C-alpha cells in the first residue's frame, strides 16, 4: 500500500492548465473547429470541470484573446523600457518591432493571434480583440511618440510579419520571400 499523498491542484492551477491546453488547441484548429472535450482531456480534467472554470467555450476563448494581448503588451513594454535604459539611440518603436519579431517565433502564439482575428465575427470575441488592440495601440503610441502615419506604417508592417511568419516564408530562398522577411 502506497503512503504517498495525493496533491490536489487549486482552481487557479487548473485554470492555467486549461488555458495552456486551449492555446495549443485553438491555435491549431481555431475557435469553431476546437471541441472543448479535446481541451479538457489535454488539461487532464473532465469537460464538466472545464465548464466550472469557464462556463462557455466563448468565455474560454475570450480569456485567451485577453491573454494573447497581455503577452504582446508586456513584451512591447519591456522592449521600450530596455531601449530607454540602453540610451544607445535605439528608438522604442524599433525595439518593440524587434521584440515582436522574437514573439512570432512562438508558433502557437502566432497562430492563436491569427485565430483571434478569424473568430472576430463573434461579437464578444470581436470586442475582446478590439479591447486588446486598443491597449496595444495606446502603449505603442505613448511609448514611441510616433505620428499617426508612423504608427499606421508600423502596425501594417507588423501585420505583414504575421502573414510571412504564418506561411514560414523565411524557409524559402526566393526573391519575394527574402524581401518580405527582412525585418531591418
UniProtKB/TrEMBL annotation:
It comes from the Bacteria. It holds the Pfam family TetR_N. GO terms for molecular function: DNA-binding transcription factor activity; transcription cis-regulatory region binding. Keywords: DNA-binding. Coiled coil: none annotated. Residues 35-54 bind DNA. Residues 12-72 form the HTH tetR-type domain. SUPFAM superfamilies: Homeodomain-like. This is HTH tetR-type domain-containing protein.
Amino acid at each position: 500500500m502506497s503512503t504517498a499523498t495525493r496533491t490536489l491542484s487549486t482552481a487557479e492551477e487548473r485554470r492555467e492548465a486549461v488555458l495552456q491546453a486551449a492555446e495549443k488547441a485553438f491555435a491549431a484548429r481555431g475557435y469553431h473547429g476546437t471541441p472543448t472535450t479535446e481541451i479538457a482531456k489535454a488539461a487532464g480534467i473532465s469537460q464538466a470541470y472545464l465548464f466550472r472554470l469557464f462556463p462557455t467555450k466563448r468565455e474560454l476563448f475570450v480569456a485567451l484573446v485577453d491573454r494573447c494581448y497581455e503577452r504582446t503588451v508586456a513584451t512591447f513594454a519591456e522592449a521600450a523600457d530596455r531601449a530607454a535604459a540602453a540610451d544607445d539611440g535605439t528608438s522604442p518603436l524599433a525595439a518593440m518591432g524587434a521584440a515582436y519579431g522574437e514573439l512570432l517565433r512562438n508558433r502557437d502564439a502566432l497562430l492563436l493571434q491569427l485565430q483571434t482575428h478569424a473568430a472576430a465575427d463573434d461579437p464578444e470575441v470581436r470586442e475582446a480583440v478590439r479591447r486588446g488592440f486598443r491597449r496595444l495601440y495606446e502603449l505603442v503610441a505613448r511609448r514611441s511618440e510616433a505620428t499617426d502615419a508612423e504608427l499606421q506604417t508600423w502596425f501594417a508592417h507588423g501585420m505583414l510579419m504575421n502573414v510571412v511568419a504564418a506561411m514560414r516564408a523565411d524557409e524559402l530562398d526566393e526573391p519575394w520571400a527574402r524581401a518580405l522577411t527582412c525585418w531591418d
